[in-house]
Amino acid sequence: MKRGGGGGRGGKFETVVSLSRQRTIQVLVFVSLLYLLIFIFEIPFFFYTKTTTNRSTNELATRSNKLDDSPSLLSQRVSLTSLQPEGERQTYAFVSRIFDDEAVLDHSDGPIHETARHARQEGKKVWEELESGIEQGISTEDTENLIGSCPQSVSLTGAEFEARGKVVEIPCGLTLGSHVTVVGKPRKAHVTGSSNGEAWYEEGAGGGGRVVSHFVMELQGLRTVDGEEPPRILHFNPRLKGDWSGKPVIELNTCYRMQWGTSLRCDGWKSRADEETVDGLVKCEKWRKDDSTDEEQSKAAWWMKRMAGRKSVTADWPFPFAEDSLFVLTLSAGFEGYHVNVDGRHVASFPYRTGFALEDATGLTLMGDVDVQSIVAASLPSSHPSFSPEQYLEMSPTWISPTLHDSNVEMLIGILSAGNHFAERMAARKTWMQHSLIKSSQLVARFFVALHKRKEVNVQLKKEAEYFGDIIIVPYMDNYELVVLKTVAICEYGVHKVSAKHIMKGDDDTFINLDAFLDKARQVPDYISFYFGNMNYHHKPLRHGKWAVTYEEWPEEDYPPYANGPGYILSSDIAEYIVSEFEMHRLRLFKMEDVSMGMWVGQFNSTKPVRYLHSLKFCQYGCIEGYFTAHYQSPRQMLCLWEKLENQTWPQCCNMR
Fold first, then answer.
1. Model confidence over 98-120: pLDDT tens digits?
2. Which of 37, 130, 499, 606 could form a disulfide with 408 if both were Cys (CB 3.0 to 4.6 A apart)?
3. For this UniProt entry, which segments traverse the membrane (predicted)?
């Protein structure tokens, strides 16, 4: 029994030992497998990390070499120190040198020279701040101001509207479907010049003594440059007592730089059946012309005819505005034009005019014999192309300006632009600036831009200039009366920097058909000086009104022959003369850039004959078939024109917005 009991205890012991060995072996196997797994995955990770590190190092070295070799990358700056006396501050190749002689404007008197000196001094200070890196301190609030606060709606009471100078700011303009509602009341008619009520006169209106009651509502464009009159994108003028016709009338029009378009007059007659419509609506609705007819009787007769079962009943509505009577006016933006409804009834529709985009309508004004109760603008866009450079500037090498060659170029194309015209410059880069002659540097295109009053715009402008390499900054504070300085800068760059054979001046809303006018320019022998554009002869300065030119500014009775500003071409010897006269402090400056050029060419013509070449194909307003240049073209129109020019042999216009 004892022996049997001892054998049982020995068997149990052996069982325990066996189980312990099995567990030990299992643990060892598990640890070994874990080690193998770690070893297997660690080696590829090590080699991958090392390879990636080496590749990144090589890429960084390559990029560093590119930064050293390429003049067109974002942070590349081309030093001009070697061209300056030792000790002068460093400047860069995208800055115009017309003010290298700081006394260049100090030897002449007159309003424009005083304005120019002040703008140059202020611009010098702003540019030095940009160079020194002070722009790094721009706050988030400043950046948001650049992008622009784009509210979905804007509303003002009548008192708020009066307090803001009778102007409603629409920060980012309008878009398709936007609408503005005005609640107001026309004042009682009064004799012009009397003390009853506020007498309001249209510019250029005749003398007093007439009984009037009229007001003007206008959509106005952004004032991009100090001193420049904002364009009147839509001019809506109800005249309750009529004008020369003696009957109530509504006039609609547009105006840009004192040039009015063809007016649309709604005088109570419905537009003809064969006349084009706007989004399916007639341009002018009919209203009853005889104000003595009893309105209630007319409405009662209309309802009686309707109840009698007549299928076709024509409503005989009165003029939509009445003295001392409240109205609700709604202005809406459609596909083809603006539509005006008053008290729920369609009154007029006005087709979009070439050169004016919906996003340009950044302000609304109401002036004249009207008391405004409230204004609401709704369904507004969320961004504006000129305020959102990061949205509209495509930082792609495709659009970078090609490197300049040492040899002379055939033509410099200088384009006047404003600091915040990011969308306009991008449209030019993506269209006519892609021409093979520009990509090969046979022709050179550059934007000439002055400094903007908003610091954050200048920061973005400087970055844009550094990246694309096609912007020349003229270091003065932009002002419409000083646009002539940009023209001088174009001549200086064409003569001293690129030694161009010909020099062309254009605007950033000008589409250029290079092949067409180059053929004409090449027909002129090299030894002949020429001035080629849409010429004006025997024009006289306006002596009265908002755009008046004083005798101090222009003492002569006539302007010299001059080409319209949106596009013209000079031979290089004329440009050399202009630069020389400017550097010798003898160049006369005038606030109208195109007239100034005509004056300078006329002075050169007294020493060497100049051939004046005229062509209407340098379009002053809009576009014509077979154009050399098309003016007032929106970015969308520029893209459309380029597509047509590539696909068709004959240049055709785009009338879409």
1. 988 878 887 777 778 888 999 99
2. 499
3. 27-48
CA distance 655 to 633: 9
Asked if residue 3 belongs to a domain, the reply is no
Burial class (CB in 10 A: 0-12, 13-18, 19+), 410: middle
In a domain, 125, yes or no: no
Determine contact, residues 464/393, Cβ cutoff 8 Å: yes
- Domain match, 397 and 255 both: no
The tokens for 160 are 């708020």
Question: At 197, which CATH number?
Answer: 2.60.120.200
Whole-number pLDDT of residue 155: 95
Q: Which of 16-25, 423-432, 614-623 is the least confident region?
A: 16-25
**Residue 615, both tokens:** 């062509």
Among 234-238, 349-353, 403-407, where is mean pLDDT lowest? 403-407
Half-sphere exposure at residue 410, Cβ-oriented, CA atoms within 13 angstroms: 12
**In the chain, what is the greatest distance between 2 CA atoms, to the nearest angstrom?**
147
Residue with tokens 């509303």: 155
**Structure-token pair, residue 575:** 């440009």
Whether residue 549 is found in the same domain as residue 624: yes
Q: How confident is the model at residue 227 (pLDDT cuts 50, 70, 90)?
A: low
**How many Å is the Cα radius of gyration of the chain?**
35
DSSP string, 16-54: HHHHHHHHHHHHHHHHHHHHHHHHHHHHHHHHHHHHHHH
Residue type, 248: P
Count of domains in the chain? Answer: 2
Closest to 530 (Cα-Cα) out of 490, 491, 565, 574: 574
d(CA 100, CA 106): 13
